[in-house]
Write a structure and sequence with these properties.
The complex is a heterodimer of chains A (424) and B (239).
Chain A: H1 2-19, H2 27-47, H3 51-65, H4 70-97, H5 108-131, H6 137-163, H7 168-245, H8 249-267, H9 283-298, E1 302-307, H10 318-338, E2 344-351, E3 355-363, H11 371-374, H12 389-399, E4 403-410, E5 413-421
Parallel strand pairs in A: 1-2
Antiparallel strand pairs in A: 2-3, 3-5, 4-5
Helix pairs in contact in A: 1-2, 1-3, 1-4, 1-5, 2-3, 3-4, 4-5, 4-6, 4-7, 6-7, 7-8, 7-9, 9-10, 10-12
Chain B: E1 2-7, H1 11-28, E2 32-38, H2 41-50, E3 56-61, H3 70-80, E4 85-90, H4 97-104, E5 108-111, H5 118-136, E6 143-148, E7 151-156, E8 160-165, E9 171-176, E10 179-184, H6 187-191, E11 197-201, E12 204-207, E13 211-215, E14 220-223, E15 228-230
Parallel strand pairs in B: 1-2, 1-3, 3-4, 4-5
Antiparallel strand pairs in B: 6-7, 8-9, 8-12, 9-10, 11-12, 13-14, 14-15
Helix pairs in contact in B: 1-5, 2-3, 3-4
Chain lengths: 424, 239
């Protein structure tokens, strides 16, 4: 009896490790497990079915020992225990069906098969769980709550079953119920994930829409500027015409020097520096560029965007490209803010025959750290523990198959180029 | 003989440029000749087709009032004259620094809005072009050619600190003084280019001439730009 109990605790623990993908084993773990399992096994006489709760707590504790997050530990152990219960009932029903045992006897045979099944199912879950990565907090919490609810439902029906005498019919009923319940949970879960995905997409679309609004406003502002300029221009022409008619050339010279020449300086200001954005025909890229560059201009940074050829499509993962663009421009803006906006931000696309190059160039401080230091994880000019931008960038670049990057610091200028190959 | 070309659609401006160029050429007695001054970009391309091997200094207006823009013209010129020195003559509004520098690898640009400066800028460009032209003919320089995108970059050996292999297969990282460049290649090819390149580790090929110090205990090499390369046990001896 003791061996059986010990094995059950061990199985539940190992299953939870599998599901949590915790592949390592250290001495502390083994010691605490052994003590805990022994205590539980001995106390089973007194606590009976509630011993399972003790196992639950022990397993969570063991997982936390490996520095896992609380919610991950709960999820993994809940699923592990659920799987164990399920396999236990499956084995009982199965063996009974094959005429090999009575429900009452927990033979070693039963334990062995049950353990095998539980470990197998846990491995499968671990593999599937690996493929579908659930990254956001909300979904992870949902999974946790769902698994705990499933576990307690199972647990309640087992307790109830024991209370009612634990006859074969009850066990069979429980088993069918478990099966249906798992199915239902999976269906609920997939619906939930679908709605999360939809919500996320909507959120993205809204952000894009807001940026497009900003962009349209900018264009409208510039249109107004153009109208004003045209008006002034016509006035000036009329005046010049007047001077020429009168053959008043000294007056003409004066007028030019005083009125017109100074005005030409004004034209060169910020107004048309983002007009090339119109050449970017991919909406998501135009959106992130507009958003970042207009933001830079609003901060008072001298920002220019350059694209001399239309860019209709870029053969790489759009999300990766948007992230790269975001990180590069953010870094540039931060450096320029450090310089109190004295300096220039140049962003552009260059299209060659077989490649497209994306460039971000910004003025930087004289004593900027060396490039290899900037690229280290954890290094940051903004203070301790902030430096993930450039190393994240390196990761994204590594994962894209047809990209190379070039970074240069020269003459107080930081220049970053991403070259995307168009051919195979 | 460096051939000078001018492409500008506005006649007055074109004639002014011609005058500046001819005068300065005479004053400095440069080994140059004014090959063409035209408003039609095709004429320049025809000339280059008929005279392959021309190395030129090109003053190009960006807006040519022609189907072909100054930038497109420059790109075509680049294909036929690799070492050509290209100078864009542009208004402030048409200034495309990134395109000039990286797509065309132009030598410089002149802003025509500031009319007082134009003559001195033209003269400065001619001086620099002349100097570089003489330097180009120097076969002594050891150069490493890297294909990046559409272009082939020529990098002096002396500027190369070391090569590092990346975790991505077939990608190498070229480290220079304060700059890093990724390209496709294999570390085996690179170690055999020249004696000064030594493969000191599975992932590193260093330029011996740029070693600052060697740390035998930790099996590391510090390069002139303060970057550190690892050395494998086997290769320590080679240093």
């Amino acid at each position: 009896m003791f061996a059986v109990l010990f094995t059950q605790v061990a199985t539940m623990w190992l299953c939870s490790k599998l599901i949590a993908k915790d592949w390592s084993l250290n001495l502390n773990e083994i010691i605490i497990f052994s003590c805990g399992a022994v205590i539980i096994a001995f106390s089973y006489e007194y606590v009976n079915i509630f011993g399972t709760m003790l196992i639950y707590i022990l397993v969570i504790f063991l997982l936390r020992l490996k520095k896992m997050r609380f919610q991950d530990a709960i999820t993994a152990s809940s699923i592990a225990l659920t799987v164990s219960f399920f396999c236990d009932h499956l084995t009982s029903v199965g063996l009974n069906y094959l005429g090999l045992q009575q429900i009452e006897n927990n033979t070693l045979y039963h334990t062995f098969i049950c353990t095998l099944l539980a470990l197998t199912f846990s491995s499968i879950i671990s593999l599937i769980g690996g493929k579908k990565k659930i990254k956001d907090e909300k979904s992870q919490k949902f999974v946790m709550y769902l698994s705990v609810i499933v576990l307690f439902t199972y647990y309640s029906s087992i307790v109830l079953g024991r209370y009612l005498g634990n006859s074969y019919e009850i066990v069979q009923l429980n088993f069918l119920f478990f099966f249906a319940y798992v199915l239902m949970s999976l269906i609920i879960f997939s619906f939930y994930m679908k709605s999360q995905r939809k919500a996320y997409e909507t959120q993205q679309k809204e952000a894009e829409y807001a940026t497009m609004q900003l962009y349209t406003e900018e264009i409208e502002k510039q249109y107004t500027e153009m109208r004003k300029f045209r008006h002034d221009y016509q006035n000036i022409l009329a005046s010049l015409d007047g001077f020429i008619e009168e053959k008043d050339f000294s007056g003409l010279k004066n007028y030019y020097r005083k009125k017109i020449k100074p005005a030409t300086g004004h034209i060169a200001e910020n107004n048309f520096k983002l007009e090339n954005l119109g050449r970017i025909k991919m909406r998501s890229i135009k959106s992130i560029l507009a958003s970042k560059l207009i933001h830079a201009q609003e901060l008072g940074i001298d920002t220019t965007f350059e694209a001399k050829e239309d860019i209709h499509s870029i053969p790489m993962n759009t999300v990766a490209l948007v992230r790269i663009i975001g990180i590069l421009i953010d870094n540039a803006i931060e450096e320029l803010q450090y310089l109190e906006n004295e300096g220039q931000l140049l962003v552009g696309f260059i299209r060659d025959k077989s490649s497209i190059t994306f460039i971000v160039e910004n003025t930087c401080r004289i004593d900027l750290a060396r490039l290899h230091q900037l690229k280290e994880v954890g290094f940051s000019t903004k203070g301790a523990n902030r430096g993930l931008g450039l190393s994240n960038l390196s990761e994204i670049i590594m994962q894209a198959p047809n990209l190379v990057s070039e970074t240069t610091i020269n003459n107080q200028r930081f220049s970053q180029k991403i070259i995307i190959n168009l051919e195979e | 003989m460096l051939a000078v070309f001018i492409c500008e659609d506005d006649q007055a401006q074109r004639e002014r440029l011609e005058m500046y160029v001819k005068n300065y050429m005479m004053i400095e007695d440069y080994d140059m000749t004014l090959a063409l001054a035209t408003e039609n970009p095709e004429v320049i391309l025809e000339y280059l087709k008929e005279n392959p091997g021309t190395t030129g200094l090109y003053f190009l207006d960006v807006d040519l009032q022609h189907e072909m823009s100054g930038i497109n013209l420059a790109a075509e010129i680049r294909e036929m004259d690799d070492l050509g020195k290209i100078v864009f003559v542009t208004t402030h509004g048409e200034l495309s620094y990134l395109t000039f520098t990286y797509k065309i690898e132009a030598m410089d640009y002149i802003i025509k809005d500031q009319s007082e400066d134009i003559q001195s800028r033209v003269q400065a460009c001619m001086r620099i072009a002349h100097k570089r032209y003489l330097n180009d003919r120097n076969p002594e320089k050891k150069i490493f050619n890297v294909k990046v995108g559409d272009k082939i970059r020529a990098i002096d050996y002396s500027d190369i600190m070391f090569f590092e292999s990346s975790t991505v297969p077939h990608k190498l990282l070229l480290h220079m003084e304060n700059s890093q460049l990724e390209f496709y290649g294999s570390i085996k090819e690179v170690e055999n280019i020249d004696d000064c390149f030594y493969r000191c580790h599975k992932s590193f090929v260093i330029n011996r001439n740029n070693i600052k110090s060697i740390d035998k205990k930790n099996r590391e090499v510090e390069m002139v730009n303060e970057e550190i390369c690892l050395v494998s046990v086997r290769c320590m001896k080679g240093l």
